[in-house]
Write a structure and sequence with these properties.
mainly alpha; 3-stranded antiparallel beta sheet; 3 strands; about 10% strand; binds manganese (II) ion
């Protein structure tokens, strides 16, 4: 049982439209789907907190039920609430990934709020779906295994690099497995709630995230206190490779 983290049909339609026009780089995603149309008063924010695709206790012992409840309802819930508040009065795409990929098209006084809260919404919406109850996440598809071998030295080495990247992120942020615009796997890190979709600059994104590890203390402090390495190892142990493989296939299409 999974819940789509975003409007995948819309996202794929955008990707298909871009693929049909090879001269347009992936970084032009925002130009293909303008994030902002004309201001419209009385428009409620379009974003809602997605339900978890499993019970709060389903990820134990890797992640405890209380951490899951607070993380989902309070932290993710606050990102959604604050995002909608920031966008009040603007007519925007309801595709969160398209929105955060084109922050520069938003009014200047909205960009920081959308970067932090839109990023938080996008990142957590992905995060819940790429974890699975212990023993149920399956294995990477043969296509994903082949790409891991080719680009990252294999699955075991990729897990090591994801872990090292998570450990070296100073303060709060994320460690990601992404598909780059030239269809290679890469492991990157972002600070705060930045998403790889936001890019290193307006001209170049880091890629499409297919797996991420949240290394904000709110993700692990109740159970692991300061032991981030133990938490990261536990998260890698409950990775939902079935879902990650689906996201890989979509990003490669
Ligand atoms: Mn978090």
């Amino acid at each position: 049982m999974t819940t789509p983290a975003f409007d995948r049909r819309s996202f794929l339609a955008t990707a298909a439209a871009l693929a049909a026009v090879p001269s347009i780089p992936a970084s032009a995603l925002g130009q293909a789907t303008p994030a902002v149309a004309t201001p419209a008063p009385e428009v409620e924010g379009p974003f809602v907190l997605p339900p978890l695709p499993y019970a709060h206790e389903a990820l134990e012992p890797a992640i405890d039920a209380l951490t899951m409840r607070i993380h989902h309802e309070k932290h993710h819930g606050a990102y959604v609430k604050n995002l909608n508040a920031a966008l009040k009065g603007l007519k925007v795409t309801s595709n969160i990934d398209a929105l955060i990929a084109d922050i520069e098209s938003l009014p200047a006084d909205k960009r920081t709020a959308v970067r932090n809260n839109g990023g938080g919404h996008a990142n957590h919406s992905l995060f819940w779906t790429v974890l699975a109850p212990p023993g149920t996440g399956g294995e990477p598809s043969k296509e994903l295994i082949a790409a891991l071998d080719r680009d990252l030295g294999g699955l075991a080495k990729a897990k090591e690099t994801l872990s090292a990247t998570a450990m070296s992120r100073f303060g709060s942020g994320w460690s990601w497995l992404v598909v780059t615009k030239d269809k290679k796997l890469a492991i990157v890190s972002t600070p705060n709630q930045d998403s790889p979709l936001m890019g290193k600059s307006a001209a170049e994104t880091m890629g499409t995230p297919i797996f991420g590890i949240d290394v904000w203390e709110h993700a692990y402090y109740l159970k692991y206190q300061n032991l981030r390495a133990d938490y990261v190892k536990a998260v890698l142990g409950i990775a939902n490779w079935n879902e990650i493989s689906k996201r890989f296939a979509a990003a490669m299409a």
